[in-house]
Amino acid sequence: MFELSFGKMMIIAVVALIVLGPEKLPKVARTLGHLLGRARSYANQVKQDIDREMQMDELKKLQQAAQDAAKSFESTVNEAGRSVEQEASSASKVFNEMESDYHAKLATAETGVTNTIAAPTHAVLNEVEALEKSIAEQALEAQAAIEAKPLISAEQMSATLNPAPVADAGKKAA
Q1: From CA 163, how far away is CA 159, in angstroms rounded?
Q2: Which of 3, 75, 161, 165 suits 48 as a labelling partner, its CA being 20 to 30 A distant?
Q3: Could you tell me the pTM of the whole model?
């Protein structure tokens, strides 16, 4: 494109000295330096604005990812809750049936019939315990799945929200 070697800059300086003269050359050089400083400052400001926009886009993507993960987590929890409710209702039905059987057998035992309640009651308790263990295991698995993958680390969030300050080279040059 446009290259300035040392020789070309010397030719330009000599021509400027001849055209402007020794009295005006320092004033023109100072003005030219000031204008170059402003141009650099403006270029740095545009660069910072572009960086901020890129960071905002990244934050929007992270926010969307967090919302998607929250929806996924909510649906997982809802599914686990429905599963627990179904197992609890089935366990409750089995327990209620066994309880009614127990009361029926108790009533027959009071009339003089031999008592055979101990074996079914023990079976019911084993089934209820098995259902409780299954429910607890599902809850622990859901909790472990949630804790296994964090959405965003604290370092990522602080780095995104608090970008490192960029030195303004244009103000130092002026």
Answers
A1: 6
A2: 3
A3: 0.38
